[in-house]
Write a structure and sequence with these properties.
Helix content is 38%, strand content 34%. It has two helices and four strands. It has helices spanning 2-10, 68-94; strands at 20-24, 27-36, 39-51, 57-60. Strands 1-2-3-4 form a four-stranded antiparallel beta sheet, covered by helices on one side.
Amino acid sequence: MANTTSKNRRNGESAKPPVAKLRIGLLTASIWERTTDNGTFYSVTFERRYRDAKGEWHSTQGFDKGNLLTLAKLADQADTEIARLTATAREQAAA
């Protein structure tokens, strides 16, 4: 997520929050919306939260073998949410 925020600030845009966040356990998918002259596009970033040896929380975008099935399920949910967002936008544009 930090990379997306940094990119937005570099391009002179204000940092916008994700349009949706999905979570399974310690894994999170953030769905980002970008509107251009060619339409609205969505992208997804994934993050895993963990505690270090001192008990402090951190996040990473790296996943080990034990996270992959959950990550795949989260990616499937993100795909479904993007389809819902796209359909809603189309309905609103047609109204």
